[in-house]
Each structure stands twice: as structure tokens, then as C-alpha cells.
Amino acid sequence: xxxxxxxxxxxxxxxxxxxxxxxxxxxxxxxxxxxxxxxxxxxxxxxxxxxxxxxxxxxxxxxxxxxxxxxxxxxxxxxxxxxxxxxxxxxxxxxxxxxxxxxxxxxxxxxxxxxxxxxxxxxxxxxxxxxxxxxxxxxxxxxxxxxxxxxxxxxxxxxxxxxxxxxxxxxxxxxxxxxxxxxxxxxxxxxxxxxxxxxxxxxxxxxxxxxxxxxxxxxxxxxxxxxxxxxxxxxxxxxxxxxxxxxxxxxxxxxxxxxxxxxxxxxxxxxxxxxxxxxxxxxxxxxxxxxxxxxxxxxxxxxxxxxxxxxxxxxxxxxxxxxxxxxxxxxxxxxxxxxxxxxxxxxxxxxxxxxxxxxxxxxxxxxxxxxxxxxxxxxxxxxxxxxxxxxxxxxxxxxxxxxxxxxxxxxxxxxxxxxxxxxxxxxxxxxxxxxxxxxxxxxxxxxxxxxxxxxxxxxxxxxxxxxxxxxxxxxxxxxxxxxxxxxxxxxxxxxxxxxxxxxxxxxxxxxxxxxxxxxxxxxxxxxxxxxxxxxxxxxxxxxxxxxxxxxxxxxxxxxxxxxxxxxxxxxxxxxxxxxxxxxxxxxxxxxxxxxxxxxxxxxxxxxxxxxxxxxxxxxxxxxxxxxxxxxxxxxxxxxxxxxxxxxxxxxxxxxxxxxxxxxxxxxxxxxxxxxxxxxxxxxxxxxxxxxxxxxxxxxxxxxxxxxxxxxxxxxxxxxxxxxxxxxxxxxxxxxxxxxxxxxxxxxxxxxxxxxxxxxxxxxxxxxxxxxxxxxxxxxxxxxxxxxxxxxxxxxxxxxxxxxxxxxxxxxxxxxxxxxxxxxxxxxxxxxxxxxxxxxxxxxxxxxxxxxxxxxxxxxxxxxxxxxxxxxxxxxxxxxxxxxxxxxxxxxxxxxxxxxxxxxxxxxxxxxxxxxxxxxxxxxxxxxxxxxxxxxxxxxxxxxxxxxxxxxxxxxxxxxxxxxxxxxxxxxxxxxxxxxxxxxxxxxxxxxxxxxxxxxxxxxxxxxxx
Length: 1009
Fold this sequence. Notes:
By secondary structure, this protein is α+β, with helices and mostly antiparallel strands. The radius of gyration is 35 Å and the shape is globular. 46% of the residues are buried. TPR repeats lie at residues 512-545. The chain crosses the membrane at residues 274-296.
């Protein structure tokens, strides 16, 4: 909420902040609402007052930003966003943030007024050990809540921690607005600042943890009593270890909050270890007994050692009675650990689509057995002889169609419902195996089928009732566990479902259907490693299952193993679907081929596969799927520059989606229209379409699709230079994806956010985020590439040239391994820029040669970036020629739609290297798009200007970013008394972070200046 002062003068876009040396008088009224009653505290960046809210008739704390300079509107907007983020926090150990206000004179926000004394005051009086544990846990809880919301406190110290009359800790005075102040002064000691904060001024969750360690140190030193009792010596040592672990010099080697909490609980846990251990054993025994009460003496333990035999059952599927017998037989076979009976639906689909009649032809039997990969084929048919009705049973072995059993049952002597018993006895005798106790009661199979049907109709209550009936019958443990697993998975209790299936698989270890179910559960919980393992085992047991091949391919594609998935699993799925003439399956897999080629940046191949998929995904047979594939085709066409074709595909998709009233389909189309605009450089139009897609998905879409749209909206804001909005959207997406545990898209979103943080100069936050991504065990190769690319940019920005070069080499290698041409291009462009910046001309030219081979695949932004690098190449040999190229280049680029990020970077670099006249259009454009938020472009822009004010602003920026790689060059151009000394210091620091090859090249450049 922003409130304006109601004076007659209009509000300025620049607001005068309160000067650090002056204070508000008692009785001062702010925003015609808050009456100042008392100064509570002040520091270099703020003043905190007790104030009376005349509207709500209550006291509040009021914090006024005090920076020593006027606040621009962009800085005010940044402050507002910080307050909006902080006010989301609701926790008993965190002060409540209320509202943000901007008047013509002041910028401030209000908070809850916490009564009590500061921890600093409590420490002076001395505290007890139990208070230390209690307060430290509360402090850690508070910080954990902040950090999980991606909020950094930034100023944790005893003075900013209140202890209420009830002895409860409350964390107050967030460091909102600290980044707007002058660089942190470290001449005076501030013992609670982490080393990296003293060096760069940037705070992070890791620096909060460092400060918490310092606070714990202070608490331990303030323990009341002259001596620590011997019984507390080990207690104190453990707390000291926690404090030391929190204060590790390296931010990412500091103890996590979770680890600190575990260590705090260590004493209580160690005392009760024996008791808990004993109770645990008793509980295991009791739970085990309870779980067996439904099953009598049966257990699901004792895995079978024998290999699994695959059996397919064929029948005349237009004969309902024969189908019932076949289903009963297939279901009853499922409890045999050594047998895997294929689903009847799979056999029926292949028979019908390929006109196979196993009862009439040996060739058809061989063909069917080969297609479904069965070792035994059981064929049921109806015969009439001499006026009698018979059920004929034929069992053959593959390969070769060797007849094992050829017999028939006279229905005058046998009931249909009893036949499965005889069939299974015959099968087991052929396999020479003992028979497990069978369930011949038709109602057992009927109950299980009813459970499955109820779940398909989302009737969980009915399914639970049916499962209870199944348990009451004291049936085989197999049926009960299958039912429990189905019900748990349907409810979303995937962990419970996994546990039930794991238990079942101990007795049925080689069953492909169970392995595939287990793989699906692992995928549902984003355990891609286990999902891949189980699906690989499933297709090894039953290679005929096209859908399992498809699921395995999908997992490998998500993990970044795209090319192997294309050449093996996805191809296998397509072959299996084609063998069974499954139209729906072929359309599905061909669409997946297109998506995979899109991810490989092979857009022409992607468009071909999408077009092939549309042959099967017709408007009559699969209209919703056609909308999806048409939208995907438009993506490939747009990226290739076929904008009219893309628009035509989207128009057709829209017609179909409207006819279906498919709102999610319409959202997909709007999303792809956004991409179409983005590819043409029309970013405002792209934003409009992406926001429309987001609006629809927020109404009817699932969280995954919503996060996808949020990501797109954020990225366009980023390209337009709206960093605050981009960050807000990206952090929203990260929260949603973390809740969903949607790892692949989460990593993509996090690397985008890290890119933004690097451009804004928020290095500590970027480093923390990239570190978090790299520590994830489920990191795909694509995400790994993106992470190393951003790590390289982060490290180079801070003068760590050697590490940056190693990072980008790793990124290039990954991009080539996954054969992603766009990734190769992005990494080579950055590698070339690093080489140009370090004046490593041989390496620079080698990278340009590699890029020249890819130039036909460049998008608009990459082409402009490449042409800028060619000017850098000319500059190294002929400045006059390079100047002419730069003038022509600027004139051309000014006529093109480009992202502000690209424009700001390239134009600012050029004006820092060439003297352009004031009437050159580049100056007007830079004035429009460059702001201090783009610290690198802003510094280059300032260095190109010939004015005292620009020099002063540049000096301020250099002090704010002391580790920046180009500081030597900028300091050398300034004429202040100490700038030569600073230039030398920056140069030596830069040298210390280079490898020998880099240093030699840069030394040559320095000596030529």
C-alpha cells in the first residue's frame, strides 16, 4: 500500500530521504496518520520510531529509510518490493511488517511494536543455559522461515533481537533498504558482519547464518555465574561447535539451519537413545502383527528366486463368456511369483489392429507371441462337436510355436467359473513348479476389478469400502497389497504406495507390471533415478510394452540424455506402437520426437516430426492432442523464422480449441503466440500473450502449467529491463515448483533468476542459488550446462578469471555432449567475450571460427552479439576501421527490435571504447534503457561520457562493486588523487585470479596502454 501526502504540491519522482544526522521531532505527523512519539533507534541506513497510528488507534514501529542521498523512483520501487516480500512472513518469532509509504518528503514502512528488551540488554545482565537453547532455536526458526521465503534479514545482531516479557524471542529490524545506502563502512568493527559482507556489502542467507553464530557466541559468553558447572562443559562445547560451524569463512561451508537444530537436540537424543531404540523395536513388532491380521498366516516376504515366465492369453474377444474366463485366469495367475501374465487389453489391441487370429493359424500365434514378447501363449476358443459345447485350450511355447497342451473341456461337465483352476494347474505343471494357493472365487477378481473401476471414476470412498470387503475374505496378500497400493497412489500418498509395492515386490521381484508401477510412483515423486531404474527393469522383462518405453524415454529426456533416448527408447516405443497399429500411440511418440528435437535446437527435424504426428492426431480422432501438436509445430516454425506458417498453425489450433471449449488448449496457444512475438523481438506483444496464458492457467490450470507461464512472464520482464517484476515472478515460480518438487523446471527457473541476480550485481544471492542447483542429485545435463554458464559469468564479474574460464569450458563440453546447438552458441559467445576482455586474441579468434560454422542457426539476439564481437576483433588491429563498423552497426541495430538487456550491454560497451559524437542515436537510446540496476552496462555508459558528474557517479559505482573485473581500466581513466593507486590495487587483484595464459595476455595489454 502506497500513501501520498495530501499536500497541494504534486509528488516528485525523486524523493528526499531523511539525512542521517537529523531526527524527527516528537509530534511530527507522517502521511496524516502516524504521530511520532519516540526515537527507538537509528543507524547508518535508517531511523526507527515509536509512532501512534491515529486511524487504528494503536502504537506501531515506524522505520524511515536514511541513505544520505535522494531516492530515485527505481530505488523506491525496489524498497516497496522488499517490504512486500517481507510482509509475507507470519511467524511468532518474526516481527510483523505492515505497510509501505511514500510521501513527498519521506519513504518509510510500519511494523508491529514489540514490547520488551533487546537481547543486547539481556546479555549485559547475564542469561541461563536453558534460555540460550530456547532463544537460539527460536532464532533459527525465524531465519529458516525467512530463507525459505527467499528473504534475507541482513542485519542479525543482539540489538535487532527483542525478548518479550514472556521470554519469547522476536527478530526485528530487517535490513530493508540497506543496498541503497553508501557502501558498508568496515573501518569501525562490526563483529556480526560476515567476511564476504565486509568485502562486497552484499548479504545472503549464509551471512545471516554467520551472524547467528556470532549471536550464539555472545550468548555463551554472557552465561551467568563465574564458572560453568562440569555437567555443562560438554553442553557448552557442543554449542561452541555450532557457533564455529556457523562462522566458517567460506559461506557455503557454514552449517545449515537444519544441522544446527539437529546438534541442539543431540543431548536429549543421546540420553534417550536406548529407550527410543527399545520402543522402536516394540513398535516394529506391533505394526508387523497388525499389518498381518488381514492375511492370516500368509506373508509377503521371501522373494522367489526363479525367473519370471511371460504368458499371453488370447481369446475370441467378441465372446463375453470367454473374455470372463480369460480375465479370471489372467488375474489368478498374477499371484504366482514366477509368472507375469500380460494384460488382456494389450493382446486384444494387437489382435484387432493386425487382424491376428491365433486359434486358426500357427503363423498368427508366432506373430502374436513375438509382438508381445511372451514365452507361453494360451489360446481360448469355443468349439462345437456332435452337438456338444466345448472350451478349447491351446498352450504353445515360443519361439517355434511348439504345442505343449491341446485339450478341451465339455461344458456339460464343467462350469465356466471353475475352468481357470484347471487352466492354471495345467500351466504350472508345464512349468514344473509348485502351485501357490489360488483364489478361484469369481467374486475376488470381481472385487479387485471393482476397486480399479471405482478409482478410475475417482470414487475413493467406494474403493475403500471394496478394499475392506476384500480384506474380510482373507484372500491372498497379493490382492490386498495391490488394492492398497492403487488406493494410496490415487489419493496422492505416493510414499505409502511405494512402501506397499516394495513389500509386494519382495515376493514378486521379476514382475514387469509391478516394476512399471513402481517406476510410475518414483516419477510421481520426482525420483528420476529410481524411476529410470524400475522402467529399465520393466522393459527388460516385457519389451513389448510401448508405453513403458515411452515413459523411460521421457525420463531420459528430462535428465538431458536426449540423443540416447531418441535413438533407443523413443524409437522402441514408436516401433511397438506401429507393430500394433496403435494410432493414438504413434501420434503421441511422434509428438515426443518433435519435442526432443526442439530441446536439441534441431528445429527443422522437430517441425517434420510434429507434422507427422498431425497425420495421426486428426481433428476427428484426437482434437485436444491436435491442438497440442499444432502449438508445438508453431514453436518450431517461429524459431526457424517461418512466422506466417507459425501463425497459420496457431489459427488452426485455436479453431479446434474453441470448438472443444478447451481453455487449457487456448492457454497453450496464447503461450505459443507469445513465443512467436518474442522470436520477432516484439517483447511487449509477447508479454501480453504470455499474461493471457497465465490468467487462463491461474483459473483452470495445474500448478506446473502456472509456473511455466509465470516463468515466461518473468523472462519477458527481464528482457525489458523490469528487474523487480521479473524477480517477483521468478520467486513465485520457484516457490510453486519447490512445493511440486518439479525439479527440471525448477532448475531452469533458478538459473534464470541467477542470471538476473548476476546482472544486478547481487553476487552472494546468485552464488547461493547456483550452489543449491549444483548440489541437487537430480540435476539434468541441460540444467548443469545453464548453471556452469551462469557460474562463469558470476565468477568473471568478480575478477575470478581463471575459475570463469574453467566454468565455461565445462559448459561448452556439456553443450556439445547433449548436442544442443543453441547451448553451444551461447557458451561460445560468452567464451569469446571472456577472451576478448582478457585480450587473448588467439583464443578469441578460435572461438569466432567455431561460431562462424553455426551462424546460420543464430537467432536475432545471437547474431547481433556475434557482430559486436567482430567489431571487438577489428578494434584489436585497426581502431579506425572498427569505428566505422561500429557506427554502421549501431545504425542498423537501432532499427531492430531487441531486448533491452542486449541493447544495454552492447551499446554501453561500444561507447566505452569509441568516442561517438553527441548526435549519435546510441546516446539517446542508452539514456532511455540504462539504469544503475544494470551495474555493468551503467558503468560502461558512465565511462563513455565526458563530464564531471559522470566521473563522480562512476567512482561511486566502482566503490560499490570493488571486485568488478574492469575496475583497473575505469580507475585508470579517472583523474582523482588516489585513482592511480586504486587502479594498481585492482590490477594486482585481477592478476592474482588469472591463470598464467590469461595473465600474460593481459600484461601485454596493460603495457601497451
